[in-house]
Amino acid sequence: MPGKLKAKIVAGRHLPVMDRASDLTDAFVEVKFGNTTFKTDVYPKSLNPQWNSEWFKFEVDDEDLQDEPLQITVLDHDTYSANDAIGKVYIDIDPLLYSEAASVISGWFPIYDTIHGIRGEINVLVKVELFNDLNRFRQSSCGVKFFCTTSIPKGYRAAIVHGFVEELVVNEDPEYQWIDRIRTPRASNEARQRLIFLMSGELQRKIGLKVLEMGGNAVVGYLQCFDLEGESGLVVRAIGTACTLEKLSSGSGTHTHPNTAPASNACNSPSKDGKEPVFGEDLPSSSGPSTPFRALPTSSSSPPPFSPSKPCSRQSSSSDTDLSLTPKTEMTQSPRLRPGIFLCPSSPILSTDTLSLPGSGTLGCGHYSGLRATTPPPLASTHSDSALLRKSVSFTEDLLLAASGMGSGSMGKDAGPLKTLLRQQTQTALEQREFPFFTLTSFPSGFLLHVGGVVSARSVKLLDRIHNPDEPETRDAWWEEIRQEIKSHAKALGCHAVVGYSESTSICEEVCILSASGTAAILNPRYMREGCLDLGGSDQRFEDPSPSSCGFCHIPYDELNMPFPAQLTYCFHCRRQKVPDVLFTTIDLPSDAAIAGKGCFIQARLCRLKKKGQGEANATAISNQLPFMEYELHTQLMNKLKLRSMNALFGLRIQISVGENMLLGLASATGVYLTALPAPGGIQIAGKTPGDLNTEQHILNIQKRINDTIAKNKEFYEVNPPDLTEEVVGSPIPEPRLRSRLFRSHSESSDELSELDLSHGKKDAFVLEVDDTDAVEDIHSLLTDASPPKGFYSCNTETMPGIYNWTSALQMFTSVRVLRLSNANLSNQALNKVFTDLCENLLKSFYFKLRSMIPCCLSHLVFSVAVPEEDLIQVAVTAVAMTFDKDQTQEKPAEKPITKGCSEAEDQLQFSLELCTDSSSINSQSSSKNSGVPESSHLSTRDRCSTWLELLRLKAHTIRRGSVKTSRRTQSLAHSVSSLEHSSPLTEGRSRSLRSSRSFGGSSVSVVKMTPLSFLPGTRIVKYVGIINMFFIRETTSLREEGGVSGFLHSFVAEVFAMVRAHVAALGGNAVVSYSMKDCVLMENPNKNQCQCLINVSGDAVIYIRETDQEVTGSTANIGLSCTSSADGAT
Amino acid sequence: MAVELDVFVGNTIIMSEEVYQLWLDGYTVNDAVKVRMEGGVLDEFDAKVDVVLSDTMDQYRTFQMCERLLHSPTKLANQLLFQIPPHRQATLIERYYAFDDVFVREVLGKKLSKGTKKDLDDISAKTGVMLKSCRRQFDNFKRVFKVVEELKGPLVENIRQHFLLSDKLARDYAAIVFFANNRFETGKRKLQYLTFQDLAFCAGQLINNWTVGAVDNMVEDMDVDLDKDFLQELKELKVLITDKDLLDQHKRYKHLCLDGKLSTLFGKQRLLMRWRLISRGLVNIATKLTNTKDVRDFFIDLVEKFIEPCRSDHWTAADMKLYLTHYTNSAHILDTFKYQVVWDRYMGVIKSCIFKMYHD
Questions:
Q1: Is B102 part of a structural domain of the chain?
Q2: Which GO BP terms apply (chain B) (predicted)?
Q3: Which terminus of chain B is more solvent-facing, meaning fewer CB atoms within 10 Å of its CB: N or C?
């Protein structure tokens, strides 16, 4: 299915002087896509050339459209010698491939050179004409939308959340190819950049295919990472959550919903197409995510060998069905498929894989399982057991899987009865959907029923060369193994799902630590049963006895058969169900959770020396250390949490980085006081030898300081639980004699530990043993953790618990600090101190630099640590500072959560409301915005909405191909309506006018806001124009001249920001949300005056409008006009 | 435990005006940190030296990267590297092009060449402006001079458009360019008492009245070069001192007007003597202006031929104003005097310059 890509080179400006003699440049441009290249004329002697070229047309497959970037090279013409390259621009044209997003890319792009940085700008126009024939057997997945945002994007509702999708692509790293010895650094960097662009395009396309297969039309919470494995290759991998998203367009809904296919409106052409597979094409795609028997390591030999949607059985069945039904798919898949072979080897390989290393480089050791929910879990013991168990269980599962796979495969031959059969199976499969993973971190109310706790798994692997890039089986198998483990942990916690799921790696030489973590949870059974998530639906409020403000805290596991020792109490909110004493999660605080006071950024840091080693010995040493590190980090977190008198952690992210001679552990989270959970006890200091007077005195001192700190923190974070009954308040200093002690030494077996834990009383305090040197360290670090200065708050979650009235000022920043350890013979403690200070100082300097924004909150503080070289510690932080209105915060902390919940729901509600009401009710709607939605209308509309949804789904099955037309019609309808009616998301007209004014208007540069959050305070996101996923390399051979490493990196980071902003602006957007810097790899060689840095960033480009604008302006047309005029005025 | 790298980059530029000023003033990072710590503003924030240092470094780096753009301020508005709010852009530019009056007084009228640049050390030592700052200011002058040199149209307007400066600053730069172009001598000891603002005012007067641009506003260098034709015409004023009749008539008329109005009590005789001297001086200046060398000495001549004599007689500023006004006007009544227009164009400027230059 071809498409036509058109590009036009308009002009350049601020070009560098390439001809010293004339102080001018003779520039021309090469435009390359795939293997086709066009050139513009040379524009002689100008630093601001006006090429105004013709439209260069590329006729290409949409598969290429997805994979390839448009590559624009600006060169200086030289009559006598070779033309000199000025720089390049890579344009990802993916955003043009879905109908809703941008229709044209147009704007000024920085011309980037990997050696010189930005060298001028170029104005480019890019369009795509996609021939919308909906071939369902294609290899492309144009139209599947990607979002980095880890919640349902604003302005959309999720009709169905299909589940986990993953994929990885590997290749040789150009930097390590033989040719790199003879080519210039520039050529090598460019080869690398281009390759990664290609790989991530391919990856996205493949994930898109999976989504289409599952019947979705979008990926939410898309997380893409690069593993630079050095000699052994380059891995690009991604995970995400497949969804069927529907656009909430207030204008379009009114008329389209009852009769004209809403499906086409909701999920555009591709999803239309994609919907079919759910019932028609193959069973496994839908059963995939739900299947209880997951694919096993190395079991499948296809490049996308494992995903929940593609377990190995699926492969067989689908290959069969493909053979009969879908010749094209079969064609492309067949080279990868080896029917008959792969099923058999899978099981034996599995059993060996975990035990020894059959050349795959796997080290059997080091699967560390952390059930991290309450008091330190019995880590070591579960560890080996579960591993064993897992092995045996999975074996049988595999057989089962094979059987079922065969069955469905044979059925695939018969088209007629197949369907009904498949449908049945689909349904049962959905019911069995026991372990779906979700990369989302925040959910609409009612979705999340109970939260079990954090589950995480790590594994240490030895990297080996990836021999055949088309079959990255080992990497797949590694991840498969880890996910399997996560799944079993979740099961152990009595949960059937993992939310807030993420994966990461840390690589040092040939050793690689793979980590995955998430939060075990129970999701709404209604959703599970129907396989449809009606996010707007509130029916669960009837079914679910527990109120949403505390329901998620209630334990999902069996009280008598607890997976780990915990102290349970009755929920302090509803008094009906049990809750744990502490709750750790990786997700954001649910919007309707009842909390007291404000949240607080909590960080545990740990640095451990490690002997230098090689190969397996090294890997073993590392994996032996891991459990202890996790344990220690956990203890630190717990202490710090208690010190702030809070009882829950959200957004927990534990990173363990490996270096040649040390391991770094960094756990960040946001502490909150959940009123449903019991009040935390104090921290108790105990000495081992009570007789000694000196020690006694010392301990008393420390104890006093701790108690003071607790009191101070309580005040600072305004933690005043509303109804603290006598029973709840544990005295901060419990009688030492009555307390059992928590021994912190590592030799202590965890079994003992758990027994001791069990004997803890209800109102327990944490006991720290002072004689333990580690504990002294701990206490020290506890007390040296400075709380933020007045007027500052910080958190690492999307929103700061306890602050709701944001004002619109925001400042996103990236900060990188590298510390060189001068003394090679540091002890663990000293190292810890250094590392802790590094993190603390970073925070302090943020507060200082941003002091002009007070009152202000640092949100979404994401730290990432690395050990780039021996004796170097690198910490990179990306966060956003947002101002808020101080006065209101104190007024209504209690009331706010409710209104907030409503406003959250509002997005989803809006559609349904307008579906069912005439324009007269719009007033009521707008009033309800302020007051909170009246309960009755709320429910009725939701009911209606859900029935409507059923209708929609039925429609989707009956409507087949002709969808192109229908979708067009609804779209145009949507336009006319929205332009006539009140506030609706931006119409094409506006975005176009915005864009044109920008690209041709002249000098002034439009402001692009950036934030790591999914929202911009005080504004409303009206359109997502595309995902931003960029990778840059910068290198210098004149480090000193560029101001040293700091100067080099400073300008590089600024350049990366500039390029992101330019791309967003060219797409017509005015902000980036969910921005993140995935990688920042810095390699320096000051002696050679050289330095190289790689940065990978991603985010969602959006168009937002100010909330006030929206209310004031009647129609979008007006907004468009005013925008254009103001833009014109500015130019 | 050395910090190898420390970088903080915001999506929107992060700068404090205080640090920017320190940077412009030529403070090294360490000195700037010292100043900031002593400033005491940071006390409330309990900032440690390392925090302030890191912040200062970040800002200095940002400014250094911006400096290239500041050299052509129009680029600052449409560059993509930094996201700078418009008001910040204006501040950055205005401050960057701001200069110290003490410093500019030293280089005023000097050739903006490498030779002068070498003397900046001495100027720095003399004025107390840091060398780095001197260099920036000097380079600014030079840059503005170079750009404006080849442009048509009004000087001030050109400067304002190309460097996005405020009106006041643009006028000052126009003066600097004008002085540099005509190489007016301002360094002599006798002229030391004049401030830059005095001279800038005079330059403004000259630009507005004596240049080509005052007549025709679309010529190259119109505001930089003096109107040759006008200077030629000035020669004709010689009649005022050479023609005995005219001189006497002129003198008489003026005396009639001035009688009893001057506060200073001069003997009639003395005033008469002065009159001859002054009149001769002013007309001589006018007639010699065709000579480039004498153009350079314009200000010295004014001081020597007019201001110093008056000052030695302890004239007040008011007296002088009165005197000059009548001196100018009385020429109008001379029936044989044919150069009224030139005379007005000449005396108008001389008058306002002398008013400005005459300090009590």
A1: yes
A2: platelet aggregation
A3: C
Average pLDDT on A498-523 reads 89
Q: Are residues B175 and B252 in the same domain?
A: no
3-state secondary structure of A403: helix
Per the CB < 8 Å rule, is B58 touching A14? Answer: no
Q: Is residue B33 part of a domain?
A: yes
Where residue A993 falls among pLDDT bands split at 50, 70, 90? very low
- Residues in CB range of A611: below 8 A, 6 or more apart: A621, A661
Distance CA A293, CA A433 (A): 10
Chain-chain contact of A817 with B78 (C-beta, under 8 angstroms):
no
Strands, E assignment, A229-338:
234-247
Q: Which of A650, A679, A781, A672 is nearest to A717 (CA)?
A: A672
Question: Are B190 and B235 found together in one domain?
Answer: no
Determine, for residues A815 and B9 on separate chains, whether the beta-carbon distance falls below 8 Å.
yes
Whether the CB of A1054 is below 8 Å from some CB of chain B: the reply is yes
A1007 touches chain B (CB under 8 A): yes
In DSSP notation, A346-395 reads HHHHHHHHHHS-SSS-B-S---EEEEESSS---HHHHHHHHHHHHHHHHH
**Pair B338, B291 in one domain:** yes
DSSP B24-73: HTT--HHHHHHHHHHH-TTGGGT--HHHHHHHHHHHHHHHHHHHHHHTSH
Nearest to A1045 among B5, B64, B77 (CB): B5
Confidence of residue B166 (pLDDT cuts 50, 70, 90): very high
Which residues on B lie below 8 Å from A817 (Cβ)? 3, 5-7
Q: Does A116 touch chain B (CB under 8 A)?
A: no
**Which among A817, A846, A1046 has the least Cβ separation from residue B61?**
A1046
One domain, residues B112 and B193:
yes
Do residues B238 and B349 share a domain? yes
Residue B319 has pLDDT above 90, yes or no: no
A1057 near B CB under 8 A = yes
- Closest C-alpha to A535, from A430, A425, A440: A440
pLDDT value at residue A138: 60
Same domain for B177 and B65, yes or no, is no
* Best residue in A821, A844, A1009, A1073 for a mutation probing chain B (most B CBs within 10 Å): A844
**Residue B240 and residue B350 in one domain:** yes
Alpha-helical (H) ranges within A981-1036 are 988-1001
Rounded mean pLDDT of chain B?
Answer: 82
pLDDT tens across A412-433, in order? 333 344 444 444 444 344 344 5
* Residues 120-179 of chain A whose Cβ lies under 8 A from any Cβ of chain B: 121
Q: Which of A845, A1002, A1055 sits opposite B81 (nearest CB)?
A: A1055
Contact B80 A110 (CB under 8 A): yes
Is B222 among the domain residues?
A: no
Structure tokens at A413: 């031959």
Instruction: Identify the H or E element spanning B333.
Output: helix B317-333
Q: Is B22 part of any domain?
A: yes
Domain end, chosen from B39, B59, B84, is at B84
| CB pair distance less than 8 Å for A848 and B55 | yes
Does residue A1050 sit at the B interface (CB-CB below 8 Å)?
Answer: yes
* A37, pLDDT greater than 90: yes
pLDDT at residue B59 greater than cutoff 70 = yes
Asked whether the beta carbons of residue A789 and residue B46 sit closer than 8 angstroms, the reply is yes
- Amino acid type, B336: T
- Inform me whether the C-beta atom of residue A1003 falls under 8 Å from chain B C-beta atoms: yes
> For position B44, what pLDDT does the model report?
64
Domain boundary, last residue among B165, B187, B214: B214
Average pLDDT value for residue range B15-30: 93
Q: How confident is the model at residue B67 (pLDDT cuts 50, 70, 90)?
A: very high
Same domain, B268 and B343: yes
The per-residue pLDDT for range A165-174, each reduced to its tens digit, is: 888 888 888 8
The whole-number pLDDT of residue A955 equals 37
Render pLDDT for B276-303 as a digit per residue (tens, 0 to 9). 777 778 888 888 888 888 888 888 888 8
Using the Cβ of A822 and the Cβ atoms of chain B, whether some distance falls under 8 Å is answered with yes
If one counts the domains in chain B, the total is 3
